[in-house]
Amino acid sequence: MVTLAEVAQHAGVSASTVSYVLSGKRSISATTRQRVERSIRELGYHPNAGARALASNRSNIIALMVPLRTDMYVPVMMEIAIAVATTARTHGYDVLLLTGEEGPDAVRRVAGSGLADGMILMDVELDDERLPLLRESAQPAVLIGLPADTTGLTCVDLDFKATGALCVKHLAGLGHRDVAVIGEAPAVYERHTGFAERTLDGLRSAARETGLRLLHRPCEGGYDATAVTVARILDERPDTTGFVVQNEAAVEPLLALLRQQGRAVPEDVSVVAVCPEQVAVQASVRLTSVSLPAQEMGRHAVEQLVAKLDGRGGDEVVLLPPALTVRASSGPAPVR
Description:
Number of domains: 3
Mean pLDDT: 90
Largest sheet: 6 strands, parallel
Number of helices: 14
Strand order of the largest sheet: 2-1-3-4-5-11
CATH class of the largest domain: Alpha Beta
Structural class: alpha/beta
CATH topology of the largest domain: Rossmann fold
Number of strands: 12
Distance between the termini: 77 Å
Shape: elongated
């Protein structure tokens, strides 16, 4: 294993100069810094993490809290987590992944133990019970999600209210007047999870604005649950000509059920989804959709947290604007 002293000898500088280049605690000339960095690369030197932590009073670790629940679409959560991890590495941080449903206990454990320099929290609820502890703690944190009250918090999210409105206005512009929403699992709404509640708010607001009749039904996903949900919708609103789907597990079952009933997409029924791009383009009918910018959300969250750790960032809410891509699943409302 290469030592700091060997790097110093290779670069022709003192060991303390190498240490200052690594820690940034003192100003080093550009020429000397470049010579030291070249020696570090050529020798393959890796500073001891424990020693660096003791010297800098930092762990160079970011804690990422991702409660993995059975009612959530895990691939999206993992895509965000991978974006967080890869972006963190470019800034010299590793990521500690916490996947349990520990709530405030996880915040308390990370903040009180020195496990990490900062936290990124996902699966944010409107009245998230982790937030009081977060506001009391001096530890820098960023939320991927939007609670009801953002005071004293830094948040990154897709603008889900605008997303819901965009879906409704697209269908209204095509002449649809009866639209049904196949939503997330009931437990997601029972927890008042921010993204689901905000999408629903946007859907309903745009429906009132456009004079469109909207019916929302949660769905567990999967073929059987989707079949029950679709049957209920068509029983309650037989004139439904448009569906908005915010449930990845219900996308393909819905398309299959419509085919079985002899309802052509988009000639008889239009379908718009809020889902990952991959789900939309790989569906049996390429879906008109608003994609989830998972990588962008993860990257923004890390950059905001690093700015806070460096003393450059303040409390800020970043809402990424939605973009609707029109594909083969939406068209003019059928003439009745």
